[in-house]
């Protein structure tokens, strides 16, 4: 019988695939896992695409974990249009924002979201902007227009692009990094899940397109377990000095597509920051002389 370590985690999307693997790994390590999904196997059953469902999920989590949370892994996602908007972005952000206070009650909290290597491709700017503005009705309307124009496939990656950008903005803020709560993302490539088999991997022609659009030198599709292990590792003390990162567990897709591009130029500082840095340098020299 597994001895509980005293740690409590919430994992969404535990009905199958990556979410199920993350929950199993954490439980095997002795943690208590609050599983969120839509099947009877879940501890928390709620529709995270609606405000009512999100509120219900948060309430149920707090009943099951009244002493706070050591970690949150928000894995649930969907590739399908309006559902993707409500679940991938707004549902994820709503749960993270609400459960931040529950994380802050524990001594070494962690939070991880699941992005996607598809976010490497260009998205729909109007949809990304609507998400980042927190305007869900507008985002849904943009997604509907995209679907009507035959661009429904771009909705999914646009929600993940928005999520990446939200995370990068948010992770370093006082209420997250300032409160000692690392917040990171894992971006899988195409892995061997039931959803992938029913959609992306169902047609040989689609697979051939994927090999060009999202090359994975370590294999396509990839295995689920290494992705789950990366998510679980980000919830451990070993990952306590990492925040705001999007870690591509994608079999090499990101480096195949970007190469050295993100690192070919140094950071460029704005005039205010540059002036502040110069001022501190001058002040330091004056203090040294005295």
From TrEMBL:
The Ketoreductase domain, residue ranges: 7-169
Stated name of the protein: NAD(P)-dependent dehydrogenase (Short-subunit alcohol dehydrogenase family)
Stated family: Belongs to the short-chain dehydrogenases/reductases (SDR) family.
Domain of life of the organism encoding this protein: Bacteria
Organism per entry: Promicromonospora sukumoe
GO terms assigned for molecular function: oxidoreductase activity
Keyword Zinc belongs to the record: no
Record Gene3D superfamilies: NAD(P)-binding Rossmann-like Domain
Record key words, sorted: Oxidoreductase
